[in-house]
Amino acid sequence: MSVPKIVLFLVGCAGTLTVFALVWPLVAPTYAQLQIFCVQPWLSSELRLTIDSEGIAVSRGEKFLTQREFLSFGGLGLTLALWLMTPGLSWKRRVLWTVLGLGVLFLWHLLALRGLIAFAEALEAQSAGGLMALLYSVIAVGDWIVPVVLWGAVLLAYRFKGSGASP
User: Fold this and answer.
1) Position 120 in a domain
2) Which of 4, 82, 122, 139 could disulfide-link 151, Cβ–Cβ 3.0 to 4.6 Å?
3) Residue 111 belongs to what domain range?
4) Who's near 103: CB < 8 A, 6+ residues apart?
5) Tens digits of residue pLDDT in 95-127
6) Is 167 domain-assigned?
7) How would residue 141 be classed by pLDDT, with cut points 50, 70 and 90?
8) What are phi and psi of 2, to 5 degrees?
9) Does some domain include residue 139?
């Protein structure tokens, strides 16, 4: 791939991430509400999930258990940037892979939220709070790794098929 294409890709990614950062505060509460809607049926009725200024707060009665912060969804912006700015793919494929990538990341976020809640409940019963930082780290790393791995795997598959699509 030529240097101008690489520069265009990087500038496009930076622009996409900038737009995402500007729009995200407006979209984040709706995205959080969608997660709550999807996860709530699998939770006990005594757990309450609410949206506050920082993210999704989980509590049991008046006792705060844990929180999933809005800032932890940055992988959505990375997914948009990687797929929409990839040279060599038609716009139809870029949009298709963007939608699929966002869907995979949404499932990751649902799994992470459910896992965080289950872990918080276990910690509440056992008082082993030191492991919560480890779980937060695994979730955060996954939020950034999942888009890159999916993007790389698809581009490698296209490369092997001979389409010439490469970053």
Assistant:
1) yes
2) 82
3) 3-161
4) none
5) 999 999 999 999 999 999 998 888 888 777 675
6) no
7) confident
8) -80, 160
9) yes
